[in-house]
Design brief:
The chain is mainly alpha-helical. The chain contains 10 helices and 2 strands. β1 and β2 form a beta hairpin. α9 runs antiparallel to α10.
């Protein structure tokens, strides 16, 4: 009974986990005037939206270093502790869920339960797919003056780099064998980490309308890694935890980034010229 009932309920929990993670943003969205980004403030000068075109990566390495240190801030303690607890509980359920997805019939043959889900999830969070998508976002950000899109792209690029760094350190340090025995890079799931980082960033910049679907897709990506028999439940739980923490960290870093511009102005009388300093924090 345990091996049949528990895995089905866990699938439902993972599928709906995105809705829970994004619920805390819904309250903020209600307080935000229609058409205004949650990441902007009402007292921001209107000229600031037109101050520059394109996105600059001149301070990328410095921001990356600050964000790396930010991972160890006190804001990360609660989500990390919750994730570690969830990972510990998941360890007790790894074998049950693994057996559920293996789906061995009476003849001893394994049949994939949801092959389409596993294949789509692998593509969505595939390294090469994400690299191509990130490059496309950067190119688009260079050709637009939309601040929100630029900030989202910058935050995601920072998060993607940090995710891969942390995931690689964990994989090399833990060296847990994958369920299919392919290699010893099971813990933790990089696919889940990247998916939850992207969902967290989308939720911040575009609100629940983008965040809820993004978190739901992230949950499906996490499930797909188990369906493909390349990760255990505890691998994807820790991956999702790290992804969420990385997402929140780079968002705090993006909110602290200062943008200063010098805007030429003409006095009302039409005589002379001056400069106005516009700063956004």
């Amino acid at each position: 009974m345990l091996k049949k009932d528990i895995p089905a309920s866990l699938l439902l929990i993972l599928f709906l986990s995105g809705f829970g993670l994004s619920s805390h943003v819904a309250a903020q969205a209600k307080e935000t005037p229609p058409g205004e980004s949650p990441a902007t403030t009402s007292d921001q000068p209107q000229l600031d939206q037109e101050e520059e075109s394109g996105i600059s990566f001149k301070s990328f390495h410095r921001d990356l270093g600050r964000n790396f240190l930010g991972l160890f801030s006190r804001e990360s303690v609660l989500p990390f502790s919750t994730g570690v607890l969830g990972t510990g509980v998941s360890l007790e359920l790894d074998d049950n869920l693994h057996d559920y997805f293996r789906n061995v019939d009476d003849l001893g043959q394994e049949r994939r339960r949801f092959p389409a889900l596993g294949d789509v999830g692998e593509v969505l969070a595939n390294r090469w797919f994400l690299l191509a998508g990130t490059g496309s976002l950067i190119l688009a950000a260079h050709s637009t003056s939309n601040d929100r899109f630029q900030d989202m792209t910058y935050a995601w690029t920072q998060g993607y780099v940090l995710n891969n760094l942390l995931t690689e350190v964990l994989k090399q340090g833990v060296r847990r064998q994958r369920p299919n025995g392919q290699n010893s890079r099971s813990f933790s799931s990089g696919h889940a980490a990247n998916a939850f980082t992207f969902a967290t960033i989308m939720n911040h910049y575009y609100g629940p309308k983008a965040g809820i679907p993004a978190y739901s897709v992230a949950g499906l990506v996490a499930v797909s890694r188990m369906e493909k028999n390349v990760h255990y439940l505890s691998d994807v739980v820790m991956g999702a935890t790290l992804g969420y923490i990385v997402g929140r960290t780079v968002l705090r870093g993006s909110d602290r980034r200062r943008r200063v511009s010098w805007i030429p102005i003409t006095p009302p009388g039409g005589e002379g010229v001056g400069l106005m300093v516009s700063a956004r924090f």
